[in-house]
Amino acid sequence: MSETATPGLRARKKERTRRLIADTAQALFRERGFDRVTVAEVAAAADVSEGTVFNYFPTKEDLFWSGMEVFEARLVEEVAARPDGETVLAAFRKVVLDGIPRLADPSRAGVIAAARSTIQASEGLRAREREIVARYTAELADVIAADTGARPHDPEPLAAAAALMGAQRALVAFVHERVAAGESGPKLAAAARAQARRVFSLLGDGLGGYAARPRSAGRAARTAPPAPT
Q1: Does 65-205 match 8-59 at the fold level?
Q2: d(CA 163, CA 169)
């Protein structure tokens, strides 16, 4: 085996181990609930040591959110690697839309419903989710700042990154609500795709004219007679 092949083989082996641990944990969480599963039990089911689990996933919450972290990292990576002339919005939008066809698999709704229930029952998971979003938002902002030559502490790259990440997380919440309402399969995928296009169209047009308060509503609110006492 050549020396140049060794690092690649090692990386693939590490990725297989990481995926095995993550998949094992997700199966146990779905079966028994997040709080009822210990890291030691995940390690035993995956046939690795507990220390190996922690080498890949510093906390139990990281085990649950492993898929999300991979996707968020890909969003940042694809924006950073976009070809000359492609906008941040176009690169980001492409990754999000490319992931939607997976929702057409009818089995995905059950997985999403189980995850939603687990998240709602755990403040620790919700807190970790916020931390992950914040971290990747900051990483995306750094990419945008480097590409635009922004000055230190310029708020525009962070504002752009926050808008993009916020849109993606809003779409995740939309899908969760649709699943809770009983949608699944191609109908769920179609609804998510339509909503994604609307959201990214809004970002593309800019927010300058969005949600201006109708003058008539404002006048009505100011001139309405006081409520009877």
Answers
A1: no
A2: 10
Find out whether 149 and 60 touch, Cβ atoms under 8 Å. no
**Domain coordinates of the chain in residue numbers?**
8-59, 65-205
How does the average pLDDT of the chain come out, rounded?
90
- Summarised one tens digit per residue, pLDDT across range 154-191 is 999 999 999 999 999 999 999 999 999 999 999 999 99
**CATH architecture designation of domain 65-205:** Orthogonal Bundle (1.10)
- The residues, any chain, with a CB within 8 Å of residue 175's CB and separated by 6 or more, are 103, 112, 188, 192
Q: Is 147 exposed, middle or buried (0-12, 13-18, 19+ CB in 10 A)?
A: middle
Q: Into which CATH architecture does domain 8-59 fall?
A: Orthogonal Bundle (1.10)
What b-and-e string marks burial along 28-48, b requiring 16 or more CB atoms within 10 Å of the CB?
A: bbbeeebeebebeebbeebeb
Q: Whole-model pTM?
A: 0.83
Alpha-carbon distances of 30 from 24, 57, 107, rounded to whole Å: 10, 18, 13
